[in-house]
Target: Protein kinase domain-containing protein
Amino acid sequence: MVSPLRQVIQAFISRRRRKKMASGGGTSSKEKKGFSVNPKDYKLMEEVGNGASAVVHLAIYLPTKEVIAIKCLNLDRCNSNLDDIRREAQTMSLIDHPNVIKSYCSFAVDHKLWVVMPFMAQGSCFHLMKAAYPDGFVEPAICCILKETLKALDYLHRHGHIHRDVKSGNILLDDTGEIKLGDFGVSACLFENGDWQRSRNTFVGTPCWMAPEIMQPGSGYDSK
Ligand SMILES: Nc1ncnc2c1ncn2[C@@H]1O[C@H](COP(=O)(O)OP(=O)(O)OP(=O)(O)O)[C@@H](O)[C@H]1O
Model:
């Protein structure tokens, strides 16, 4: 039996081969258009993950029968943080890079914000490690995942965003070999009020994944 990670890496390699062979480039990522903002067009299936602020469900977009994921953010529980939620939804909808999770659309349903996005069937690196690789991934797999994650960060930084919560739980894999960085819940924009900000000072992220300069009070940090 082929292991889930091996399957992802094999798919990743053949995807790259296909890309090289295809002339003209074009986007190979599953670009989807025209998702509606009517909750009746979506069927929520099982929960595939949850975090501090949200539950993520596998879902079907009924008009096209497409399999997607919906992140349901509980607006009642995030009262003091509506700006963060707005920023996350806005950042995700403007994203246009194969290694960064994009939202197709987002809308309010009762007291929740639904963010519609591609479904990443293998889940996060964290979950994959916990389920099948307790000693960590093999080096070639780490190289592939790291390279794609760095491309995502490079894209975000060139567009003035800093993610601020890069960790294995936010690196998502699917079984076609796509590797995407997700969860913009604490991301920040370095371009504010018409100016590039030199640095940020807020203490956000996941403590054991934080760089020392973020923990250091007063020093500030930027995309590096
Ligand atoms: N598009 C997706 N496809 C499949 N699974 C996903 C997808 N997005 C998220 N997940 C799963 O759901 C989990 C939680 O998602 P996410 O990190 O976005 O929620 P959160 O509440 O913002 O988390 P955190 O506590 O890290 O801030 C992820 O670790 C992952 O396992």
Notes: The CA atoms of residues 73 and 113 lie 5 Å apart. Helices lie at 4-21, 82-94, 125-132, 139-158, 212-215. The domain at 123-214 is CATH 1.10.510.10 (Transferase(Phosphotransferase); domain 1). The first strand starts at residue 42 and ends at 50.
